[in-house]
């Protein structure tokens, strides 16, 4: 009996010990997501965001145009209503004067001095006088009513567009929030990734978008580590303008293989407005250039003996910025 009890206790102890190992042992390692897997998620979110942005831009511009028309119509309605009010006040004044002092002089003279046989003419004249006053008011009132009807229709349309605008803005903000979260995760992934190489200083591009500039920046980033060769524009070797030419060609934008030509081909932008893919030019003679990738960083092909690499934007004296496309 004792032997059996001891066997049961030993079994129970082993079970508890095993459970303890399970409960207190090291937690299973959770693999950090790779930069490429996070970028794939960002692309998926961007493909949802971009149509929403385009719809939002279209609807928002409509809303702004309608609101401007509303203000213009309201500005016209005020004076027209005032004209109607003044004209009505004038008619009321004539009626009061006629009641207090008798008919106007011309009508009074005709009534008092004319022949009894002219009674029909006298009444016709009185009717014409009244109609003249009514017509003056009616012309202004008709214009007022026309603008009021147009404004009412516009108000209804604008209310509908405003609701759509608010809905799209909410969708845009929601998707953008997801992208921002993924971007933080992406930067963390690059921080734990061993695949940075000596020429990559972190996530590249720093700001990840899927518009033409963003895709050109991605292409430039994919070329990091390629050797510099003067006059080369890919696919395996590059000089500074050959790199930017090749990157932008990947999204269908043609640039000449010369820094000063690319300066003239792009649209000027300020530093505050820089976006991934924009071109950064150095020195007063524009003899060197790089591609902006966000976060105050660029990718460039520096010089003979070096390789395509990331660098800070202020690697040299900046002459200006241009946006291709």
What would you note in describing this structure?
Strand 3 (288-294) and strand 4 form a beta hairpin. This protein has helices at residues 2-24, 35-101, 105-113, 119-192, 212-222, 240-249, 259-265, and strands at 267-268, 279-282, 288-294, 297-300, 309-312, 318-323. The protein is elongated. The longest helix is centred in the middle third of the chain and has 74 residues, at 119-192. It has 2 domains: 44-191; 212-323, endopeptidase fold (from Nostoc punctiforme), CATH 3.90.1720.10. Residues 1-29 and 94-107 have low confidence and may be disordered. Helices cover 62% and strands 8% of the residues. The protein has a 6-stranded antiparallel beta sheet, with helices on one face. It is built from 7 helices and 6 strands; from the N terminus they run H-H-H-H-H-H-H-E-E-E-E-E-E. The protein is α+β, with helices and mostly antiparallel strands and 325 residues long.
């Amino acid at each position: 009996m004792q032997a059996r009890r001891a066997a049961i206790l030993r079994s129970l102890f082993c079970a508890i010990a095993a459970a303890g190992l399970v409960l207190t042992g090291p937690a299973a390692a959770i693999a950090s997501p790779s930069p490429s897997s996070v970028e794939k998620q960002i692309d998926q979110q961007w493909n949802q965001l971009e149509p929403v942005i385009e719809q939002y831009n279209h609807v928002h511009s409509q809303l702004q145009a309608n609101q401007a028309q509303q203000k213009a119509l309201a500005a016209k309605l005020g004076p027209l209503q005032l004209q109607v009010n003044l004209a009505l006040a004038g008619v009321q004044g004539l009626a009061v004067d006629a009641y207090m002092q008798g008919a106007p002089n011309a009508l009074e003279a005709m009534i008092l001095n004319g022949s009894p046989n002219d009674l029909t003419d006298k009444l016709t004249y009185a009717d014409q006088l009244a109609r003249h006053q009514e017509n003056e008011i009616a012309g202004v009132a008709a214009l007022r009513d026309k603008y009021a009807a147009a404004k009412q229709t516009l108000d209804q349309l604008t209310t509908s567009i405003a609701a759509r605008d608010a809905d799209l803005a909410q969708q845009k903000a929601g998707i953008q929030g997801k992208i921002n979260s993924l971007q933080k995760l992406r930067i963390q992934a690059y921080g734990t990734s061993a695949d940075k190489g000596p020429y990559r200083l972190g996530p590249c591009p720093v700001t990840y978008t899927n518009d033409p500039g963003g895709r050109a920046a991605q292409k430039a980033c994919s070329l990091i580590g390629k050797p510099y060769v003067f006059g080369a524009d890919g696919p395996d070797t590059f000089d500074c303008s050959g790199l930017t030419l090749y990157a932008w060609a990947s999204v269908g934008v043609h640039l000449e293989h010369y820094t000063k030509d690319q300066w003239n081909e792009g649209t000027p932008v300020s530093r505050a407005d820089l976006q991934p893919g924009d071109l950064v030019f150095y020195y007063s003679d524009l003899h060197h250039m790089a591609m902006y990738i966000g976060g105050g960083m660029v990718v460039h092909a520096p010089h003979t003996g070096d390789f395509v690499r990331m660098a800070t934007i202020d690697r040299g004296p900046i002459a200006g910025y241009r946006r291709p496309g």
